[in-house]
């Protein structure tokens, strides 16, 4: 209901900073951000855009940070980053962003009771994401393909856990995208959201060849999406 609540607020004419659900860090914030990661980082402030699209409906700082990290992961994999080193690169990036607030995009979203500055606001989000990325690294050291991935990195209902569990499924099956997607879809948590992110990471790394032709042929609005993909490439 979070996205619906925010959209209703916008429809009624509220500014987006009032329409958003300020306390929500639901995974809808980063389920839709993958395309931002495919934009040119030299000409686009990808971090700010990733956080802004999340903030429109999910105003919690962790929703913003997790969306930024999701876009970063997609960009990294799509431009040749090695999957094995991705968790460390994500951690380095998260730590470098702990006091960065994109005021030009986010405005006064940070202003709420008990928050003394925009830096204090955004740091909470990055701290929670760093915690779950550390859990991801521990899970990868165990490398357990049989157990439910949600046991290690969370059920995925919230943004940072959807990111980490989607990454876990992908990184357990780096060169087996269908197995990665199946592991995500058969998890015990918010399995469609986890699978959505797993598929995004696998697709960014491998490309469209990751998926069977008959799957591709059944994509809704395929021609429109292909036109966007061609424009981005």
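-> sequence recovered:
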């Amino acid at each position: 209901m979070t996205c619906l609540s925010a959209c209703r607020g916008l429809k009624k004419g509220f500014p987006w900073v009032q329409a958003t659900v300020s306390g929500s860090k639901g995974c809808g914030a980063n389920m839709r951000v993958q395309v931002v990661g495919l934009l040119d980082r030299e000409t686009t402030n990808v971090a700010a855009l990733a956080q802004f699209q999340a903030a429109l409906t999910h105003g919690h700082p962790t929703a913003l940070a997790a969306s930024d990290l999701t876009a970063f992961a997609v960009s990294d994999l799509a431009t040749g980053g090695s999957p094995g080193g991705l968790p460390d690169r994500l951690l380095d990036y998260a730590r470098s962003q702990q006091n960065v607030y994109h005021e030009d995009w986010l405005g006064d979203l940070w202003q709420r009771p008990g928050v003394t500055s925009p830096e204090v606001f955004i740091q909470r989000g990055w701290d929670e994401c760093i915690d779950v990325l550390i859990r991801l690294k521990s899970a990868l050291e165990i490398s357990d393909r049989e157990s439910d991935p949600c046991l290690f990195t969370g059920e995925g209902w919230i943004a940072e856990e959807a990111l980490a569990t989607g990454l876990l499924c992908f990184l357990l099956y780096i060169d087996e995208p269908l197995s990665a997607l199946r592991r995500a879809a058969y998890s015990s948590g918010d399995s469609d959201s986890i699978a959505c992110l797993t598929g995004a990471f696998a697709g960014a790394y491998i490309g469209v060849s990751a998926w069977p032709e008959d799957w591709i042929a059944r994509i809704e609005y395929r021609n429109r999406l292909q036109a966007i993909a061609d424009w981005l490439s």
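DSSP finds 14 helices and no strands in the chain.
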